[in-house]
Amino acid sequence: MIDRARLATLTEREAAVFAERNPKSAAAYADAGHLFGRVPMTWMNKKAGAFPLYVESARGNRVIDLDGNEYLDFALGDTGAMAGHSPAPVVDAIGRRIYEQGGMTMMMPTTDAEWVGAELSRRFGMDAWSFALTATDANRWAIRLVRAITGRSKILFHSYCYHGSVDESLIVVGPDGKGMDRPGNVGAPVKVTKTSRVAEFNDIEGLERQLAHGDVAAVLIEPALTNIGIVLPEPGYHDAVRRLTREHGALLIIDETHTFSAGPGGATQALALEPDVVVIGKAIGGGIPSGAYGLSAELAERILNRTDLDIVDMGGVGGTLAGSPLSVAAMRATLEEVLTDAAFEGMIATATAFTDGVREIIAEFELPWSINQLGARAEYRFATPYPTNGTDAAAAADPELEDCLHLALANRGILLTPFHNMALMCPTTTLDDVAAHHAALREVVRALLAEG
């Protein structure tokens, strides 16, 4: 439906506008010769223009770049800033720890840690919590624990899942229906099929076939796929996952790092899931590096009773800076005062308005697109109906259209997540902000379709 020649012309035009608007960002990128890929992290090169935007300041859902351009931020650090940028309670808690109490990191606990553990238990239902600095680390440590306790070597994932840079998770279903390395996997220590099994999301029969091998320690899943669009679970899927894991002696790990958007207790609470382990990261620290994994009481006891396991020193389930006073203070402030139950009500209502408005635009212009929502998070995909598994969602990608859209929206003061078309609401996102996105999207779609 989109004329590719017109798409290329529009992209070229928007790229020129982008370059004209952002000379200081362009210069900063050109001068960054001492950085690998010219950026602090190479994924910052996932950009539609010739250079990334450089940030000068950010508060709430507003970002100002080096050139003084202001944006409505719907990316929010790809969930890391779901609390908004620099929320006041978190800034105050960090300030108290740094300026008044002192001691940003040390090998001693604070009482904030127990408060955070109790609050995470209230929200997610797990009984015993341990901290990390990223969800990737929390996933790695959870994987070590479930392998140790089950005596099994393999972890089962969904194709095109997202669990950070966990080596085992970089597996997809290949054209022959068997597992294979995810395209682009960098320096895998061993062939991923030696450590992992894979099934398509929403494929109960495929999941059961993989579990039947009897070597799966745990199924590690997102309750909805979130890094390849938002692929929602079909009715009954999670019930089947839990039943099959129990039948085949495998544990169930739920990674809530992105699906925390579903509500105060993530999808675990919203969908009444029954995991053995919950992993979460990013958003719970309000911008300070934070992660955590929670265990059921039964599983925690089994692990602690294993005297052959070194979970104190060199057993591979800890980090010197994890659970630091600074990180834990930020988590407490975020959970106690920012990402509260009431805040989620407002965020989800705003996301619903976002979703409804995008659906109206899709219908108005008869676009072959669709949109899914998961609580405070929504994402449109260039396919209809919305894909129901990761492989189909990956096949629906249109990088040229996505780049054009992201450029054009940025030029109109709207930021979406660079990796896809995800929009996230924080507590300060308003209905006026949503309306501004819709106005910009409608203008860009008209230009794409040459309707005026």
Give a brief description.
By secondary structure, this protein is an alpha/beta fold. It has 14 helices and 16 strands.
Radius of gyration: 22 Å
Percent range of helical residues: 25-40%
Strand order of the largest sheet: 4-12-11-10-9-5-8
Task: Name the beta content range.
Answer: 15-25%
- What form results from the Cα inertia axes? globular
- End-to-end CA span: 16 Å
Keywords: Pyridoxal phosphate
Organism: Leifsonia stereocauli
Cofactor: pyridoxal 5'-phosphate
InterPro entries: Aminotrans_3, PyrdxlP-dep_Trfase, PyrdxlP-dep_Trfase_major, PyrdxlP-dep_Trfase_small
List the helices and strands and how they pair.
Layout: H1 4-21, H2 23-30, E1 55-59, E2 62-65, E3 70-73, H3 88-101, H4 111-124, E4 128-132, H5 135-150, E5 154-158, E6 171-173, E7 179-181, E8 196-199, H6 204-211, E9 216-221, H7 237-247, E10 251-255, H8 266-270, E11 277-281, E12 291-295, H9 297-304, H10 325-338, H11 341-364, E13 370-374, E14 377-381, H12 390-395, H13 399-411, E15 414-415, E16 422-424, H14 431-449
Parallel strand pairs: 3-15, 5-8, 5-9, 9-10, 10-11
Antiparallel strand pairs: 1-2, 2-3, 4-12, 6-7, 11-12, 13-14, 14-16
Helix pairs in contact: 1-13, 3-10, 4-10, 6-7, 11-14
Descriptive notes:
Belongs to the class-III pyridoxal-phosphate-dependent aminotransferase family. A seven-stranded mixed beta sheet has the order 4-12-11-10-9-5-8, with helices on both faces. Strands 1-2-3-15 form a four-stranded mixed beta sheet. By secondary structure, the chain is α/β, with parallel strands linked by helices. The chain has 14 helices and 16 strands. Helix 3 runs antiparallel to helix 10 (325-338), helix 4 packs across helix 10 (325-338) and helix 11 (341-364) packs parallel to helix 14. Helix 7 (237-247) links the parallel strand 9 and strand 10 (251-255). Helix content is 39%, strand content 15%.
